[in-house]
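I am still getting used to backbone structure tokens and would like to learn alongside you. To get us started, please write out a protein record for me. Start from the sequence, derive the backbone structure tokens from it, and show both lines together. Once you have written the record down, we can walk along the chain together:
***
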Amino acid sequence: MTKLAHSLTKLAWTEISGATCAADEVAFIGSGGLASVFPVTDLASAAVATAGLSIAGVIRHARGQSAEITVDRRLSSIWFRTSIRPIGWTLPTPWDPIAGDYRTRDGWIRLHTNAPRHRAAAERILGTHGDKEGVARAVGQWAKADLETAIVEAGGCAAEMRSVADWQQHPQGRAVGAEPLTYIATADHGATPKWSVPSGRPLAGVRVLDLTRVLAGPIASRFLAGYGADVLRIDPLDWDESGVVPEVTLGKRCARLDLHSPKDRTTFETLLSAADVILHGYRPGALDGLGFDAVRRRKLSPGLVDVCLDAYGWSGPWAARRGFDSLVQMSTGIADSGMRRSGADKPVPLPVQALDHATGYLMAAAAISGVTKRLANGSGTEARLSLTRTAKFLVDHQTEDDEPPLAPETEADRTADIEVTDWGKAQRIVPPIHIVGAPMRWDTPARNLGSALPRWLDE
């Protein structure tokens, strides 16, 4: 059951590194899979493995040693759902009360209203309703394409359900289909980095400026923190994503800045000038509008490893469109395929937000590979990824055989360590990857947004 995981790993790693042979060194263990019409467990395993190969690459460059990698398919699948297990408290719900799938006159549409401004945009079109029943009545009066357009033009987030075939013929589907899974280019050179790549913590000393939100980017920076990187997450003053913060802030420090404020802009420039890696998930052009375009970022930090993602791709008419995993599943035909193949009467998404998670691990792999290039010759890296391109990567590969379901989670799946988070005590699921000599671990527990000062650890 590991053949497809190996194949996906080889494809993903080749795009990032240009080499295929290293992917053969990964050992996959574990049986069973997440129930889906698409190979979600193989995607999860391959994405984790690809990030692991990038860690092995750093170790090989610094020490001339190969690193044995084992990926547990079952644990990878569990981590793609959630890794934290609260003790005596419960995780906040990640969804707004009116977010969800609704039937229109001619099909289905999904509304994403978790952010207050996105809910307000939907309400400007549909009216204010106290429950889903009221929203459903309003949505039922619309054609799905017209409602999607109206909400998006109002500044909101919505996606009509399309089939895979419809998406492949859509102008945005064709544009994304021509993009690489991970675009990587060499950028300006910088000074020789000070990273020592210590045994056991290969990313120690690497400074990561994290400007990402739910969910792919924070997963990428969580992986980097797991191998010793100093991750500083920066959020706007009013931003919150309470439903996932305990899950994704593990190992990080989280500060707030207003990039419209002259004082905070100066602070941000100081942080960026000392950063080695920047991860950002703003829509294309958003950072440019704030005065921090790619040229400016490289000028502030020569040799910077600059990794960015968006929802709907980097070319085509929707390149600047807001989006999230659940919306992309509707747009690209994933939810439609689930509905049709299962005989359901409503959209059937993937069992986990696999596009977000997989893209996050691929972002981490691109960033860490950039670190290796910087160590080798001082060059910077620019990388771009998108949720829709990851969706194509999944849809293009069918399951090999029916797998039994994953075995139920047990206490043995949890680490013995108790994590004292800002919300209470918790445990984590055992990491899904094991690299000999470089265990995945985090130095700090999950913390709330805005709980730290905007400065690097050693300052």
